[in-house]
Amino acid sequence: MARERSMSGTIPSMEEHSGNAALTDNTIIVVLGASGDLAKKKTFPALFGLYKAGYLPRGVRIVGYARTKMDKDEYHKRQVSYIKIKDDDTKAQEQLKEFTDASTYVAGSYEDGAAFDELTKHLEEIEETYKGGQVNRVFYFALPPSVFIPVSKNLKEHCYAKDGDNRIIVEKPFGKDLQSCRELISSIRQYWHEDETYRIDHYLGKEMVKNLLVLRFANIALSSAWDKNSISNVQITFKEPFGTEGRGGYFDEFGIIRDILQNHLLQVLTIIAMERPVSFAAEDIRDEKVRVLRAISPIEKKDTLLGQYVGANGKPGYRDDDSVPPQSNCPTFAATTLYINNPRWEGVPFILKAGKALNEAKVEVRIQYKDVTQGIFKDISRDELVVRIQPKESIYLKLNMKTPGLQMRAFPTEMDLTYQRRFEATNIPEAYESLIRDVMRGDHSNFVREDELDHAWKIFTPILHWIEGKDGQRPTPVSYPYGSRGPKELEKFVADRGYKRTTAEYNWPISQVSNL
Ligand SMILES: NC(=O)C1=CN([C@@H]2O[C@H](COP(=O)(O)OP(=O)(O)OC[C@H]3O[C@@H](n4cnc5c(N)ncnc54)[C@H](OP(=O)(O)O)[C@@H]3O)[C@@H](O)[C@H]2O)C=CC1
Ligand SMILES: O=C1O[C@H](COP(=O)(O)O)[C@@H](O)[C@H](O)[C@H]1O
């Protein structure tokens, strides 16, 4: 049974965790799909970051596995290609050498049991060097979902450690709709227990997303105005300044809703909207998130705005990519509105919006409060609490203040908590570092549970089927130019859902305000 956990100023100690035990020794991490993009860009840099900080089990070994044949040097070159170390940091350079010395590679297929026997032979050779005790194996699926099922089966049948802990880390996407998700889950469940399964949504490892629980529940000043009585609308926004170049093949099959909204943004929404958990234990947190998801009705067509970028400013349009079908209707931008049918949030629109090839890189939550009673005030801006998830992590609260001077005039300003300034020289870990560390600690709180997925797909499956023409005619996304703010229809879309723009005179960080 999960023991209750609480947080007292510092991160809870390992002893406070339950469910899976912490892995402290004799552990091999096997990265499947080690030749791929995710492994190179995220998994290996995160593993090195943890290794450097002493957060991996003592004597850890890292084994890459994929079909591509590579010798040791080629593999190590790939493995370190995204790891950044300063030229004068000799300690980190030595640590990187230790890290690659602890890393080996086995080539083999994903379907063939005999290839997994070869992998096991290699693991056993390593384990012979461990001094007694149980041996643990952690399998990271840096793989396309098309091979999740055979890999789950082969790992269980050929590579499962009999005396020790086994864990799998599975990447998104977890299916394409409700039915395929259920099929995927039940197939993997034949071989792996929920306890052994860590489904990554890397947004749950981002510092500002993890901070939401503290922001909400450790601050009475905020928590007492956190409901439909005070809040008008909530926007959760993801903007990327680049298109799907080079990933068109994957993206066209999935689209922006499956890529970002159904998982990353919906996870953020659940934490913004959930009730206070009884403890920080994984099941207490996830129970509360599921309660929120269960109260959300499927998204309606009328609450959806779809866009697709076209070439502009010398940049190619979505359909200009060779790997994208020339007539593709796949949305690269989507805004959807969700309503949570519970007493706290009834009637408050939660607008999730995400787009590729926009004017900037930004992920943020914007909570807009209702108008103050007019009378002594007229046309003053609404308060807003903004949580900037990335880049430049920050939280700012936009509040009206009297402009300095002899006149009595209210003007929007902000209380600004920019992390770089407030926590100078503090390292903010990468999301994948934080999550892989959680796997080692046996902490499931920041991983997605089966029932969360089921409810998340119930919310999105009807509009996804509509977009894909399963109910008849496909909707045509509106066009927006590469590098723009998104479809021009967006302004009206958010205004229709209650969002009021701050006065045009407001400018961050300095406003020139007339006070005459
Ligand atoms: N890349 C990213 O930034 C992110 C990726 N993800 C998720 O991580 C997982 C891996 O993504 P990514 O690394 O980009 O994917 P890749 O396309 O790079 O695939 C990873 C490896 O899997 C093998 N592979 C590729 N296609 C197939 C296929 N059709 N059948 C069998 N094996 C194949 C290849 O290895 P080999 O041929 O050598 O066996 C490849 O190196 C996916 O689930 C993705 O959704 C999640 C968040 C971000
Ligand atoms: O899961 C994904 O996330 C990335 C964005 O991740 P971030 O940590 O850089 O915000 C996105 O580019 C990709 O399309 C998607 O699959």
UniProtKB/TrEMBL annotation:
<comment type="function">
    <text>Catalyzes the rate-limiting step of the oxidative pentose-phosphate pathway, which represents a route for the dissimilation of carbohydrates besides glycolysis.</text>
</comment>
<dbReference type="InterPro" id="IPR001282">
    <property type="entry name" value="G6P_DH"/>
</dbReference>
<keyword id="KW-0560">Oxidoreductase</keyword>
<dbReference type="InterPro" id="IPR036291">
    <property type="entry name" value="NAD(P)-bd_dom_sf"/>
</dbReference>
<comment type="pathway">
    <text>Carbohydrate degradation; pentose phosphate pathway; D-ribulose 5-phosphate from D-glucose 6-phosphate (oxidative stage): step 1/3.</text>
</comment>
<dbReference type="Pfam" id="PF00479">
    <property type="entry name" value="G6PD_N"/>
</dbReference>
<dbReference type="GO" id="GO:0004345">
    <property type="term" value="F:glucose-6-phosphate dehydrogenase activity"/>
</dbReference>
<dbReference type="GO" id="GO:0006006">
    <property type="term" value="P:glucose metabolic process"/>
</dbReference>
<dbReference type="InterPro" id="IPR022674">
    <property type="entry name" value="G6P_DH_NAD-bd"/>
</dbReference>
<feature type="domain" description="Glucose-6-phosphate dehydrogenase NAD-binding">
    <location>
        <begin position="30"/>
        <end position="211"/>
    </location>
</feature>
<dbReference type="InterPro" id="IPR019796">
    <property type="entry name" value="G6P_DH_AS"/>
</dbReference>
<protein>
    <recommendedName>
        <fullName>Glucose-6-phosphate 1-dehydrogenase</fullName>
        <ecNumber>1.1.1.49</ecNumber>
    </recommendedName>
</protein>
<dbReference type="GO" id="GO:0005829">
    <property type="term" value="C:cytosol"/>
</dbReference>
<dbReference type="Pfam" id="PF02781">
    <property type="entry name" value="G6PD_C"/>
</dbReference>
<keyword id="KW-0521">NADP</keyword>
<keyword id="KW-0119">Carbohydrate metabolism</keyword>
<dbReference type="GO" id="GO:0009051">
    <property type="term" value="P:pentose-phosphate shunt, oxidative branch"/>
</dbReference>
<dbReference type="InterPro" id="IPR022675">
    <property type="entry name" value="G6P_DH_C"/>
</dbReference>
<keyword id="KW-0313">Glucose metabolism</keyword>
<feature type="domain" description="Glucose-6-phosphate dehydrogenase C-terminal">
    <location>
        <begin position="213"/>
        <end position="499"/>
    </location>
</feature>
<comment type="similarity">
    <text>Belongs to the glucose-6-phosphate dehydrogenase family.</text>
</comment>
<dbReference type="GO" id="GO:0050661">
    <property type="term" value="F:NADP binding"/>
</dbReference>
